[in-house]
Amino acid sequence: MNILYINNSLHLGGDTKCIFKLCKEIKNKNKVVVASSGGILLKDFLNLGIKHYKIKNPSIINIFSIILNISKIKKIVREENIQLIHSHHRLTTFISKIVSYSTGVKVVHTQHVCINNKFFLTRLALKNIDIISVSDAAKKILIKNSRIDRNRITTIYNSVELENENKIVDSILVDKKKRYFTIAQVGRLVQKKGIYDFVNIAKEVKKTNENIRFFLIGDGEEHGRVKSYIKKNNLEDYVYMLGSKDNVIEHLKYVDLVLLCSYIEGLPLAPIEAFSQRIPVIASSIPGTSEEIVNGINGYLVSAKDIEGFAKRINEVYEDKELYKSLKRGAYRTFIMNFTSEKYINSHLKFYKKIYKRD
After folding, report:
1. Cα separation of 268 and 20, whole Å?
2. pLDDT reported for residue 240
3. How is residue 278 annotated by DSSP?
4. With pLDDT > 90 as the criterion, what percentage of the chain qualifies?
5. Side-chain-side CA neighbours of residue 74 (13 Å)
6. Any idea what DSSP says for residue 245?
7. According to the CATH classification, is domain 171-338 in 3.90.1200.10?
8. CA angle, 233 as apex, 232 and 237 as ends, to 5°?
9. Which of 66, 257, 264, 320 is the most exposed place for a label (fewest CB within 10 A)?
10. By C-alpha distance, which of 114, 108, 150 is closest to 129?
11. d(Cα 6, Cα 284) in Å, to the nearest integer?
């Protein structure tokens, strides 16, 4: 099958990681090309031998860009003999749907987040499109708020890339791991990830436990403000910012516990990455994330923004060694049962074939 993967950009995010994994795993038996406005991870696709077409970033909405993108994607479909477009952004899906009217190409959309706004735009973009939802929570929101036909939505849980040629791990993390229990949050430094809560949790834990160190792995628009906030609270020797890493799994090998303080997710990759390395996760009890974490089995769910609740669970896991060992076993068992690469790829290929064969 000839497949075009399309997204607004190839940024450091879960959607790009998913596209990369799909390209890597199916390119040997399928023709795969990618279209986006580019981004920091473009080089990874090019190194993989994936052909990339540059389009205007559809997130910047104006009629000129929309017309240019429609023309460009239509040209790609015809020149590359594309049979199926798999879009990962609702605006690229809307544009792809327009292209399908004149080319007959099949269009598939992946819903990566539990949306909380723009329901009409979502309905306009996704109506009569076959959809992959990364969680049942995201699926329910599409059905309820955007009135999407439930029969056109299939849930496929995410997986993660476990191999990376880059084995270099930040020396700060390596050094602190020798002496301390290490806790990390992996993700973009943006408000919705609860990054200030992460710092406040560290501050709360520090009151009773000096044997733990906290690490933020990721970058984003809040980087400078988070750095200042850490300094303001005199936590420079307790909370460390490691920046963005293209080999998260290698860094997780030096982490004992993962936190996820987000306010909104679809099906976050961070817990899956953690589970693959036998690391328990303490996370906000929000839609999507609650499908990954089972209390007392592979981690704990805590009400979002509950600083003391997070700190309490951290101390419980730290102090009870048998509990920690049990959570580690449960974390890996969860990964094997639900989030392996084989299950992820096979589910996508089965979905593609079903859509392509439909009249």
Report:
1. 16
2. 98
3. T
4. 84
5. 14
6. -
7. no
8. 105
9. 320
10. 108
11. 30
Token output for 31: 């023709």
Alpha-carbon gap, residue 43 to 191, rounded angstroms: 28
**Number of Cβ atoms within 10 Å of the Cβ of 1:** 15
Q: Please list, in sequence order, all residues whose beta carbon lies within 8 angstroms of the beta carbon of residue 205, skipping any fewer than 6 positions away.
A: 212, 214, 311, 314, 315
Return the structure tokens found at 9.
Answer: 């950009």
Query: What one-character-per-residue DSSP string does 263-277 give?
Result: S--BS-HHHHHHHHT
CB 182 within 8 A of CB 258: no
Q: Which two tokens mark 169?
A: 């791990």
Residues 141, 19: Cα–Cα separation, whole Å: 23
For the stretch 264-287, pLDDT in tens is 998 999 999 999 999 999 999 999
Does residue 293 contact residue 299 with C-beta atoms inside 8 Å?
A: yes
User: Given CA atoms 60, 65, 67, 70 in this order, what sign does their dihedral have?
Assistant: negative
The CA distance from 273 to 11, in Å, is 18
Q: Nearest Cα to 159, choosing from 28, 268, 235, 50?
A: 268
Give the mean pLDDT of the chain: 94
Non-local (6+) Cβ contacts of 24 within 8 A are 48, 161
| Domain extents in the chain | 2-159+340-357, 171-338
**Can you tell me the distance from the alpha carbon of 70 to that of 330, in angstroms, rounded to the nearest whole number?**
47
Domains 2-159+340-357 and 171-338 share a fold: yes
pLDDT digits (tens, 9 = 90+) for 313-330: 999 999 999 999 999 999
Q: Compute φ and ψ for 302, nearest 5 degrees.
A: -130, 145
- Can you tell me the mean pLDDT for 17-33? 95
Query: In sequence order, which ranges of the chain are alpha helices (DSSP H)?
Result: 14-26, 42-47, 63-79, 90-103, 119-126, 136-145, 171-177, 195-206, 223-232, 248-252, 269-276, 307-319, 321-338, 341-357
Q: Quick one: average pLDDT of 300-320?
A: 98
Tens of pLDDT along 111-131? 987 766 677 888 888 899 999
Which amino acid makes up residue 350?
K
Cα-Cα-Cα-Cα dihedral sign, residues 110, 280, 229, 243: negative
Beta-carbon-side half-sphere exposure of residue 145 (alpha carbons within 13 Å): 15
CA distance linking residue 276 with residue 17, whole number of Å? 16
CATH class of 2-159+340-357: alpha beta
